[in-house]
């Protein structure tokens, strides 16, 4: 007997029905929901940050220049230096249970699971990270072990960007590409127009103003992107601007306080403008004393919101003459947001439940 060829597909778990010739007796199992966020280091150490950045920044969806050239820059200049500089910044925001992005992502998956359990809907929810852990492939395995033959993926970004949404879709498709018995797949593209998402943001702003009073301006700071990728057709900028318009409308007259900026520029290229920190500084110089800042593109607090906005941008605004800087936290595990997410998911599960 010759040895079988090695298969490029992973073996499936043993199926007692594999050769069953009777009519199909099995139901397709509960639908699975996969919440995919970006990913974060396992620990706030230079070593763990290096592993994370090496994976993240080697994704051609994130850095759109020829890989041979980029890998020289990444391995020669970025990976030897940036992790050590980032470690203290991650330590500053680290929670007792781990990295905030992971802690909130797991809380969102738990909250959503509880919503479906309470409704008696047989849906299984799993959180995954595009880079690092829990890996997308492992999360899909876990859903399949729970009997899910149909999986809805929710990239956890209300606004579409190729560098976030599309790469999450690619990762799920690649994981399915390693399977012989593939689950049926669905994806949510974006959801910034969802009324309940906008409503949850507006309610958070209102609650904050009820507790602290209104500011002179409310800055919505979105993660930036290279200007070039928007010129090449990425719809992200318009998605952000429309999000801001919808939130303005939801805030009624106070919508006039809303302004937009873009944060977290990386590299030397021009990114989307206006940039967040220079905007805050110019406001302070022009006599603005009280600002609130919110990051509606991030569903979970993370390095970019806690350290960059609540930390660095606050300092910059106060140093330039501002008096009060208030950061309004991300939706995280806000019950109004978890309800919004449950509604969104339920609509996309149409026909499966
Ligand atoms: C060219 C580089 C980058 C693009 C494009 C980009 C887009 C983008 N990122 C997020 C969300 C997050 N980014 C986070 C961290 C982060 N982002 C980049 C680079 C790009 N992002 C880097 C190098 C890093 C790591 C930190 C650093 O070195 O400055 C995070 C936080 C992760 C955490 O651990 O807390 C999130 C979330 C979006 C939404 C987006 C495009 C719309
Ligand atoms: Fe980023
Ligand atoms: Fe950053």
From TrEMBL:
InterPro entries linked to this entry: Ferrochelatase, Ferrochelatase_AS, Ferrochelatase_C, Ferrochelatase_N
Residues reported to bind Fe(2+): 223, 304
Annotated catalysed reactions: heme b + 2 H(+) = protoporphyrin IX + Fe(2+); Fe-coproporphyrin III + 2 H(+) = coproporphyrin III + Fe(2+)
Compartments in which it is found: Cytoplasm
Compositionally skewed regions (Basic and acidic residues) per UniProt: 9-25
Biochemical pathway: Porphyrin-containing compound metabolism; protoheme biosynthesis; protoheme from protoporphyrin-IX: step 1/1
Record key words, sorted: Cytoplasm, Heme biosynthesis, Iron, Lyase, Metal-binding, Porphyrin biosynthesis
Keyword Membrane: no
Pfam family for this entry, one: Ferrochelatase
First-tier enzyme category under EC: lyase
NCBIfam families from the UniProt entry: hemH (TIGR00109)
Protein name: Ferrochelatase
The organism of origin for this protein: Candidimonas humi
């Amino acid at each position: 007997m010759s040895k079988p060829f090695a298969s490029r597909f992973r073996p499936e778990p043993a199926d007692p029905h594999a050769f069953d010739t009777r009519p199909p007796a099995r139901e397709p199992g509960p639908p699975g929901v996969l919440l995919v966020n970006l990913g974060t280091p396992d620990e706030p150490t230079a070593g763990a940050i290096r592993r994370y950045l090496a994976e993240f920044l080697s994704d051609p969806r994130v850095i759109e220049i020829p890989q041979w050239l980029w890998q020289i820059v990444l391995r020669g200049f970025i990976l030897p230096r940036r992790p050590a500089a980032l470690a203290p910044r991650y330590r500053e925001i680290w929670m007792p249970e781990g990295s905030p992005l992971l802690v909130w992502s797991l809380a969102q998956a738990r909250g959503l699971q509880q919503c479906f359990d309470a409704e008696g809907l047989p849906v299984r929810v799993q959180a995954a990270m595009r880079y690092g852990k829990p890996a997308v492939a492992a999360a899909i395995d876990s859903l399949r072990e729970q009997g899910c033959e149909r999986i809805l993926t929710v990239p956890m970004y209300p606004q579409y960007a190729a560098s976030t949404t599309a790469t999450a879709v690619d990762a799920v498709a690649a994981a399915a590409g390693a399977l012989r018995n593939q689950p049926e797949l669905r994806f949510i593209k974006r959801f910034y127009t969802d009324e309940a998402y906008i409503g949850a943001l507006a309610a958070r702003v209102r609650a904050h103003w009820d507790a602290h009073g209104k500011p002179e301006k409310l800055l919505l700071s979105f993660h930036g992107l290279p200007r070039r990728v928007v010129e090449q057709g990425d719809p992200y900028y318009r998605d952000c601007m429309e999000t801001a318009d919808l939130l303005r409308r939801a805030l009624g007259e106070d919508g006039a306080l809303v302004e937009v900026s873009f944060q977290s520029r990386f590299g030397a290229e021009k990114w989307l403008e206006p940039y967040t920190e220079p905007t805050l500084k110019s406001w302070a110089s022009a006599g603005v004393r009280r600002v609130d800042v919110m990051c509606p593109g991030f569903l979970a607090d993370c390095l970019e919101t806690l350290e960059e906005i609540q930390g660095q941008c606050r300092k910059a605004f106060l140093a330039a003459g501002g008096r009060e800087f208030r950061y309004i936290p991300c939706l995280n595990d806000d019950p109004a947001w978890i309800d919004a997410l449950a509604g969104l998911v339920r609509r996309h599960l149409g026909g499966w439940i």
